[in-house]
Amino acid sequence: LEAYWSGIAAGWLEYGFDALICRAAHRISARAWQSVLADARRRRPGASFWADTLGAPIESSEALAAVDFDAFFSSACWWDFHASWFVEQESRLRRLAPTIAFPEPPGTVREPADSSATEATAHRARFRYAFAATAAWGVVLPMGYAAGTVNSGKVKRSSQGFDIGTDIAVINALKRDTPAFNRPARSVRLS
């Protein structure tokens, strides 16, 4: 198993990738990951490995503590801003490594909104991106997100009629220029 995954990682690193996402990382033992990452880092010092344990119990992520992943994916995009689970989960993940958030669930199918809802849709997209960018160390910008590109899972794509690219640039500059948003921090629920 370790030789197989080491070969996969080596292939992607040879293509020039510097960061690899380890999907369903919790389904492979910490010992196996340690071997795979050690081999990959010998081949490419500075290579980064991001653990995707989305949907798994937090204990599954914690079982990978010894692996030395560079980041864990955050569940921020599913938080309703009320339930306490997010703050607890984020705090526990950050003990392992910095987190990376998404403004929408990975693989989301964006359905078109009616034309009267365009501004509300754009506002929601701005808010979700700002939250993802500030709630975690890193943020992933899905293709088409800034323009609200509809992705119904088919080849045909269309825009929602908005462009929040400038807003995203401002949010990214704020994140870059604000030390508190550039490093892992402890999450605390205030109310």
Sequence-ordered SSE layout with sheet pairings:
Elements: H1 2-14, E1 19-22, H2 30-43, E2 48-51, H3 58-62, E3 71-73, H4 85-94, E4 99-101, H5 118-135, E5 138-139, E6 150-151, E7 157-158, H6 165-177
Parallel strand pairs: 1-2, 2-3, 3-4, 4-5
Antiparallel strand pairs: 6-7
What would you say this structure looks like, in words?
The chain is of the alpha/beta class and 191 residues long. Helices cover 38% and strands 10% of the residues. The chain has 6 helices and 7 strands; from the N terminus they run αβαβαβαβαβββα. The strands form 2 sheets. Strands 1-2-3-4-5 form a 5-stranded parallel β-sheet, with helices on one face. Strands 6-7 form a two-stranded antiparallel ribbon. It is globular. It starts with a helix and ends in a 14-residue tail after the last helix. 25% of the residues are buried.
